[in-house]
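User: Here's a protein and a ligand (zinc ion). What would the complex look like?
Assistant: Let me lay out the input and then the predicted complex.
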Amino acid sequence: MPDTSRLSVTHLPGPLLGAQVDLVAFVTYGDPTKDSIFKSADHALGGVLHDVAKSEGFEGKAGQSISVHTHGRIPARRVLVVGGGPRGEFTNPAVRDLAATVVQAAGKASVASLAFLLPQLGAGRETALVQHVAEGVHLGSYKFGRYLTGDDHKKPPTLASFGIVTDASPKGKRPTAAQLKAFTAAVRRGEVIAAAINHARDLVNEPAAVITPAALAADAQAIAKKHKGSVTATILDQKKCAELGMGMFLAVGQGSVQEPKFIHLTYKPAKKPKKKIAFIGKGVTFDSGGYSLKPSQSMEDMKVDMSGAAAVISSIDAIATLGADVEVHAIAACCENLVSGHAYKLGDVLTSMDGTTVEINNTDAEGRLTLGDAITYVRQKVQPDEMFDFATLTGACMVALGPYTAGVMSDHDALLKTWLNAAERTGEDMWRLPLNNRLREQLKSPIADMRNTGDRFGGAITAGLFLKTFAKDTPWVHVDIAGPASVSSARPSQPKGGTGFAVATMVEYATRR
Ligand code: BES
Ligand code: MN
Ligand code: ZN
């Protein structure tokens, strides 16, 4: 786990330029010479900000920043100005990136304390902004460095205090007690969410040799132990899954020496729950493709194929910490898709937990098999009011939407809209794809109820239609996270690798209804 406890986010009274810290930072949106904070800082520093901005071509664009020494003109040693783009972009990812940029600059300058002026993006938005900043601080300091042995990577981070100045006025008004309370709650919420996201990132970034199905089960049990009283963990082993008839799930895992584990975490609120929701995550800890073997390049990253499981497990941790008025179940059918004398084969006919028979025409379409049985388990044993699944399911979804956007499929319009609204608030990119029933033709089999793979076109949708067979009438939303679960190009709040995608929206959905 990243050590987020070392770095604390606090409220600092203004004025910004009088703060007794090592570094003062603020955001300038567009032309700095028109920005009142920039002008007053420049004035206090005797015009040096203006000179540096000019010589370095700083125009307040997103991604730009300048940093100057203060030579004792104000208490802080350094001033950092970060470009925020032409108009202030309020979205969560944009604000997270600004905060992350400040944290990373502070790290490079070996700064212990800083004062950051909350972006001035309109009254009434401060609380949400503070949460986004707190998230960005901790997401921006995330690094998966366990296996790096150089001295650089062992140095503890120097930044200990990230102070937020909420009021831009030169005098600095004192916030009211109510404002301070809202501030503290927003910081805590942001920190809890970021910690869960970073935890999911760790689970994804760890090699498959470490994050086995048993390791994921142990992680789930540790979360239940942490929230004794509100969270319980049930782990079903291979034998128990066989008794339940999970023929699809077990077939995928049978080629590996790692025993499959079916994880079921339950969060129960203290009061009678308003409703029951289930979050199901794909937990293939390594996807070789099986006998429909992936080429080496496509296999290289396939430790990420448990990103859905990592997200649903981590979300329960945050939901239990923050508290919710709904009962939340996290389900993950975890196994490895490997090749061996025990592995399942093309042409095999599997019997799923709900009795549907499936002919295998591609062992690399394994996620839908594990999820199909997980969905049936949820429908029969949990009987939720609504269920969601999160899966690195198809390359086709990335072809359709690009690497940053999740494909969302559902026949339950109202539920889908509520979900997309939550995603909009957290800033996670999600876009609807149609569950076009006509494509179901592709899943016909001459010898079984259906086959597991369609043709080339509409691959994300045929996968969704396959899952729909098992969801039946239970309100259900399918989220294909093959693209955004891990990224190969970084942004300040999101380094390369596992992203923890969907955690923020799950927490938002369950705790703010
Ligand atoms: N885990 C993969 C999908 C994937 C691809 C996730 C790239 C993340 C990045 C999934 O199990 C898979 O192999 N899907 C196949 C389906 C096909 C055989 C119908 C695919 O997308 O090629
Ligand atoms: Mn696969
Ligand atoms: Zn897979």
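Summary: The domain at 206-423+430-482 is CATH 3.40.630.10 (Aminopeptidase).
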